[in-house]
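Dear support,

Our group has been running a series of protein-ligand predictions, and this particular one with PRP is the one our PI (initials K.S.) wants archived with full inputs and outputs. We had some confusion internally about which version of the output was final, so please treat the block below as the authoritative record. The input we submitted was:
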Amino acid sequence: MNKDIKTILLSEKQIDDIVTRLAADIDRDYADKRLVLVSILKGSVMFTAALMGKIQTNAEIEFMKVSSYGSQTKSTGCISVLLDLKREDLAELDLLIVEDIVDSGRTLNLLTGLLRERGAKSVRTVTMLDKPERREVSFTPDYIGAEIPDEFVVGFGLDYDEKYRNLPYVGVLHPDVYTK
Ligand code: PRP
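Confirmed final output from the archive:
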């Protein structure tokens, strides 16, 4: 185990089981749809790759990079699109946004709104991790891998200062790392 990790929250085996379950749910729901996975960079890359490998429905893949800014006093905010989805055929596509984690809920709340406004046929969301305690806007992902407590987690795509994304498990970061 990496020396900066205090405890493992989800092992490789647990992650594999979660991804298998989510892929089966998605296959069940998208059998007759035009599935496009929209992976949100950078955190969701490992989850997206694992999920793609298990989904049996024909699926396309797209990437977006966004950052959301919200104030404490408003339930809305604004979203800055750093890498956009460029498709002319949105009205024919069933988009499934793939995220590593939902925290305040702002990113997915704004992004689902944006893609619906642009006329996508359908927009749903799948997240590997959900921290419901941290929610600042009302948002419920359609598919959730695991609900986790409000701890500083890294690995399986999630970073601290751009590091630890490559860990194959989800772990709680040792406080020494970020209180130094
Ligand atoms: C993280 C995560 C989500 C968002 C969730 O991305 O991947 O996109 O934050 O937080 P929210 O629910 O409070 O909006 P981050 O901005 O850290 O970028 P990264 O994926 O490149 O690490």
